[in-house]
Amino acid sequence: MRIIICGAGQVGYQIARRLASENNDVAILDVSAELVSKAADALDIRGVAGHAAHPDTLERAGARDADMLIAATYSDEVNMVACQIAHSIFEVPRKIARVRAQEYLKPQWSDIFRRDHMPIDVVISPEIEVAGVVIRRLAAPAAFDSTPFLDGKVEAVGAKVSQECPVANTPMRQLAQLFPDLRARVVAFVRDGHLRSAAPEDQLFPGDEAYIVVDTRHVRRALELFGQASDAAGRVVLVGAGNIGVQVAVQLEKTDTRSKLVEADRSRAEKAAEQLERTIVLHGDGLSAEVLSEANVQDAHAVVSLTQDDKVNVLCAALAKQMGCQRALALTNDPSLAPLAGPLGIDAFVNPRATTVSTILRHVRRGRIRALHTLRDGEGELFEAQVLATSPIAGKRVRELELPSGATIGAVLSNGQVATPDADTMIEAGDTVVMFSIKRDLKQVEALFRVGLEFF
Questions:
Q1: Burial of 207 (0-12, 13-18, 19+ CB in 10 A)
Q2: What does the pLDDT look like over 431-442, one tens digit per residue?
Q3: Where are the alpha helices (DSSP H) in 31-96?
Q4: Closest by alpha carbon to 233, among 316, 153, 325?
Q5: What is the pLDDT at residue 454?
Q6: C-alpha closest to that of 182 among 172, 196, 197, 192
């Protein structure tokens, strides 16, 4: 497939890296010749220096023969115009645009992206996507990762195995025998910095990070099983009243959560106060212990630091945790900061760029993919896919499937019912499965689904 990516920043680069590794014909363009050269040399893809909204630039990138255009520059307007030109002049079949400004996404302007207006097939809002991630984390604060599948019927959660974990040092095949009514399956775990698929004979040890596909109704119990408390956060302190911070506050106002929002910039704090109804907005520095104390962070169930500065977010979360806050989450675009989480007492990082990449890739995939979540910078993927009659796995029991060693089925939706599969579970055409696969086995997983799951 021929794909043009507009924008060679971190999001565009990561998308290009993933798609190029799957043998797509990828072209990346940007106004920065330096960024284009860096991406083209590192990824062995075509690079074009130029303005993404200029027809001649798109033509040099191969728009006349392109199957898809992904507009992920820093400018919403450039992204939208690039999609318009790709449609009107070059008839590119599928167009995806990243749009940050919430003004474009208000319900009263919902027709703006219609095919006969500004034809964009998929609009990705990083603020809305990241806000959703934060809300899910606050619903289960003990989880360091949380993603819904099967229309919310199951959740893929990440939990660190604590010293108090009652199932540590127990072969995973025994978990179903010990807890027969718990609909949960460990599909992967991280040990010594390496992501691995979970096999029946594997055991989990304290310090491991487990990824669990669990019936949404059983999330709390599953987290407790791994030694993690999981009560939803009832009192939350947010730091940073940017687009993401305000979006999170808006979502929290729809729940019973009591929240306070701290913002250092007075005009931004005043604007947030006008937008929010039940959230208390405080003007002050999130790195000030006095300001955090005024926000009662010491009594809060969680603090979420969402400023535009990664280092501020990390230090603010660490300070709040030191002051007595139960849970601390920090927004960071820099994955190299992840090792600091443990020493500083930060419970989870939220990476908006990784979230945006996962969302875009979900819409790039063809076939019957309905959801996709990348793990650890693309080392593995959790995805939801429908089984077609043409799939080699249709009509077979799990024990008969020739799954690669790095792939695991976490849940099956059949006739509207969710099941945690065992060796005798039958996979039928029309079923939807939630699977994990490490990167090296994705192509083999593709072969199992054929038309139903097609990685390019």
A1: middle
A2: 999 999 998 887
A3: 33-43, 55-60, 76-88
A4: 325
A5: 42
A6: 172
Ordered by where they begin, the domains of the chain are 2-124 (3.40.50.720), 235-354 (3.40.50.720), 361-454 (3.30.70.1450)
207-246 tens-digit pLDDT:
899 999 999 988 888 888 887 766 667 899 999 999 899 9
- In Å, the largest CA–CA distance within the chain is 64
Residue type for position 307: T
Place of tokens 């014909």: 25
The number of angstroms, rounded, from the C-alpha of 278 to the middle of its chain's C-alpha atoms is 28
Q: What are phi and psi of 127, to 5 degrees?
A: -60, -45
The whole-angstrom separation of Cα 329 and Cα 349 is 6
What the block records as the tokens of 330 is 């920090």
* Distance separating alpha carbons of residues 220 and 168, to the nearest angstrom: 18
Please return the burial class of 192, using the count of CB atoms within 10 Å of its CB with bins 0-12, 13-18 and 19+: exposed
What number of residues does the chain have? 456
Return d(Cα 347, Cα 336) in angstroms, integer.
16
**Amino acid letter at 107?**
P
Closest CA to 183 of 419, 19, 408, 348: 419
Q: How far is CA 322 from CA 15, 138, 156, 307, in A?
A: 37, 19, 29, 19
Tracing tokens 């998308």 back to the chain, one arrives at 15
> Residue 274's CB: how many other CB atoms inside 10 A?
9
Torsion on CA atoms 312, 313, 319, 323, rounded to nearest 10? 140
Residues in a beta bridge with 63 = none
What type of residue sits at position 361? L
Q: How far is the C-alpha of 184 from the C-alpha of 197, rounded, in Å? A: 15
- Scan for tokens 């704090």, then name that residue: 269
Rounded CA-CA distance 124/104 in Å is 11
User: What percent of the residues of the chain are helix, what percent strand, and what percent coil, each to the nearest 5?
Assistant: 35, 25, 35
pTM higher than 0.85, yes or no?
no
Tokens encoding 85: 């030109």
Cα R_g (the chain), whole angstroms? 23
